[in-house]
Automatic annotation (TrEMBL):
InterPro entries: GAF-like_dom_sf, HTH_MetabolicPath_Reg, Tscrpt_reg_IclR_C. The lineage of its organism: Bacteria, Pseudomonadati, Pseudomonadota, Betaproteobacteria, Burkholderiales. This is IclR-ED domain-containing protein. It comes from the Bacteria. Residues 1-163 form the IclR-ED domain. Gene3D superfamilies: 3.30.450.40. It holds the Pfam family IclR_C.
Length: 165
């Protein structure tokens, strides 16, 4: 399922979980398109700047979220100060949209969206994300297309696991 989506959007689809102040990829699939981001299993990205990290924060229980953000504030005070307003905005967006983004934060030429599973798996919040190269494509329609497909993918995985909302 994730390989099919990666091929269709000419990008990368991954599955990640939290490891301290980062999100670590447990699985990745990418299209053969040479613009697909070359992200592999084990790659880690900071929670506060990645779409999958923001999706994790959105799904986490408030006390777990606060604990993670406080850990980042202590270890990386500059990053925390620079990004906390964006994170709060992403949390509000998640309530409305059901996904999080990080358009151009890590790479200005890429769009990343992420959707957490509705329930933890083995006590872990599992996050699916999709990253594509913009290549001159308009962000709003691309975001809408990918968001709908990514949400559908996550819901299908949840249904297959019997872990839906």
């Amino acid at each position: 399922m994730i390989k099919q989506l990666a091929d269709e959007v000419r990008g990368m689809v991954g599955i990640s979980i939290r490891d301290r102040t980062s999100m670590v990829y447990m699985e990745t699939c990418r299209s053969e398109d040479d613009s697909a981001p070359p992200i592999d299993i084990g790659a880690a990205f900071p929670i506060m700047v990645s779409a999958n990290g923001r999706a994790w924060l959105a799904r986490a229980a408030p006390e777990e979220r606060d604990k993670a953000l406080n850990q980042i504030k202590v270890l990386y005070p500059k990053l925390h100060a620079e990004r906390i307003a964006e994170v709060r905005h992403a949390l509000r967006d998640f309530v409305q949209l059901g996904y999080c983004t990080s358009p151009g934060i890590l790479r200005p030429d890429r769009l990343a969206l992420a959707v957490p599973m509705a329930r933890p798996v083995n006590a872990e919040i599992v996050v699916f994300n999709c990253t594509v190269a913009l290549r001159g494509r308009a962000v709003p329609p691309l975001r809408a297309e990918i968001a709908g497909r990514l949400v559908t993918l996550v819901r299908e995985v949840e249904a297959a696991m019997g872990a839906g909302a």
